[in-house]
Amino acid sequence: MNKSIKSTAFALLATLSMGLSTNAFAHKVGIVDMQEIYKQIPQMAKVEQTLEAEFSERRQELEKLQGDIRFEAEKFKREATTMSDKQKEELRTKIQGMQQQLAEKGRPLEQEIKMRQNQELAKVQKLILNAIEEVAKAGKFDEVKVKETTIYVNPKTVDDLSSKVVEKVSKQ
User: Could you write out the DSSP letters of every residue in 50-82?
Assistant: First the structure.
């Protein structure tokens, strides 16, 4: 009787193990290449255009100021030998004042651009993450990993979902 229970239990365990190995251990994994997605989606070009338009006037003002500084510095180099000490000092002071003005205007502009860039990128990232989730659910994936943070994946067992995500985001 004891042998009969053991053999029945063993047979039951073997049957369950065979069933579990195909179902419970099947883990469908996808991967996305975020860099490629960002490169390919049209929303990124739109973000760049928006920021360019928003800050173009202030950037041009700074570029003009940089050009003026270069002009005055070259003028100083060219004419320093014929200038009086007073003229040299006045020109140095003028150049330093222009450089200070450039720094005072440039830093806040850079910070504002970065802040706006982060706001716009957060919107795009939300679109991408929603698309990844939709593609993963539609494909019945158990897990989706980011390629950039994954050391190795076997391309035969892991599906690259990047193109599907790009397609989905591009339609939005």
Answer: HHHHHHHHHHHHHHHHHHHHHHHHHHHHHHTTT
C-alpha span between 115 and 126 (Å, rounded): 17
How many C-beta atoms lie closer than 10 Å to residue 170's C-beta?
Answer: 14
Question: Which residue, among 106, 77, 108, 112, has the nearest Cα to 91 in the 3D structure?
Answer: 77
Q: What angle do CA 18, 23, 28 make, to 5 degrees?
A: 135
Residue 6: what are its φ and ψ, rounded to 5°? -65, -45
Q: Classify 94 as helix, strand or coil.
A: helix
Rounded Cα–Cα distance for residues 49 and 120 (Å): 11
| pTM listed for this prediction | 0.67
Q: Which residues of the chain have pLDDT under 70?
A: 1-26
> Which tokens belong to 91?
């020109």
CA distance 9 to 21: 18
Residue 3: its pLDDT value, please? 55
Paired tokens of 93:
């002071």
pLDDT value of position 22: 45
Report how far residue 2's alpha carbon sits from residue 21's, in angstroms, rounded to the nearest whole number: 28
CA distances from 88 to 66, 141, 157 (A): 20, 72, 72
How far is CA 129 from each of CA 18, 149, 167, rounded to the nearest angstrom? 36, 16, 13
